[in-house]
Design brief:
By secondary structure, the protein is α+β, with helices and mostly antiparallel strands. It folds into two domains: 39 residues; 47 residues, no CATH class. It contains one helix and seven strands. The strands form two sheets. A four-stranded antiparallel β-sheet has the order 4-5-6-7, with no helix packed on it. It has a three-stranded antiparallel β-sheet with strand order 1-2-3, with no helix packed on it. The protein is rod-shaped. The chain starts with a helix and ends in an 11-residue tail after the last strand. This is Transformation system protein.
Amino acid sequence: MRIYASILVLVSTIYSQDLNIKYKYILDLYNKFNTRANLADISSPFFISQSPQTTMDTPNLNLEAIIENRVKINSKWYEVGKEYDDLYILEINGLTARVLHQDQYINLKFIKSSVDVEVY
């Protein structure tokens, strides 16, 4: 019985020394590679970085009216299929007009509509 107890004590001391060596090794690695940042340096705890927004040079085109194959944009009437300076009307679909303006395809929509319009 004493032999079993002494073997058990011997094995437990060897095993505990092995754990202490592993634990010390892990702590040394942690101290060498300290990746934790200073909390004062962190602006947000969620690390959300906002990219600068680029503004596109969108033209100020307002669709005011659509009658048959013509559209009124910025108080001027344009016909589908004809080219005007830097504006080309591609197609009209219901309440939208597809326009080519300075090599950009733009879909224009009504901002507000009225049902009280009468055409004579």
